[in-house]
Structure to design on (68 residues):
């Protein structure tokens, strides 16, 4: 009977460690998702700015300045 009690205790300890690990893993994943969303938003803004600037550059004639 002692062996069964010891085995149960080891299983409960392992389960407690696994539950703690899963909680920490979930927190880390949620934080990474927040960071990924923030980076995605920043990327979107930068992409829009680049598109705007390239459109403006297309309007500037590609010729030598008068002093050449």
């Amino acid at each position: 009977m002692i062996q069964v009690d010891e085995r149960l205790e080891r299983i409960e300890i392992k389960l407690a460690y696994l539950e703690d690990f899963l909680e920490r893993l979930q927190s880390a994943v949620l934080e990474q998702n927040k960071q990924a969303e923030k980076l995605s938003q920043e990327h979107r803004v930068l992409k829009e700015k680049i598109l705007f600037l390239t459109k403006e550059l297309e309007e500037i004639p590609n010729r030598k300045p008068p002093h050449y």
Q: What stands out?
A: The chain has a mean pLDDT of 90. The helical segments are 2-59.
